[in-house]
Amino acid sequence: MFLLVQLRTSQADAGEAELRSFHQWLNGDPDIRRQASVSLEPAAPVKGEMGTAFEVIKLVLESGFQVATFALSYVTWRGTRRTRPAITIERGDVSVSIDSDDPEIIAQALRELGL
Question: How large is the angle between the packed helices 67-78 and 15-28, nearest 10 degrees?
Fold first, then answer.
């Protein structure tokens, strides 16, 4: 099973840099690395566009994946950012957007994805 994570920022040019920062943060978290493989993937192009320069973070989850671990990692990383980017997480055809610093709200959103 895998998740796709996209970041949104109020500064369009900062989005990719923030995404790469969060990718590095996740790869540096030993609890995340034990529970998921983390990689950067090209984002699917928007209908009518030729492609996109932005990427998404792809998490391939192990069976013991703990949503609270991801939630805590995101909240901690987000606290280090000036703009505090929101994220959109997709699993299949379902997506949730998160713009919160509350790990419980983030964990609940992930449970809505069936995790």
Answer: 130
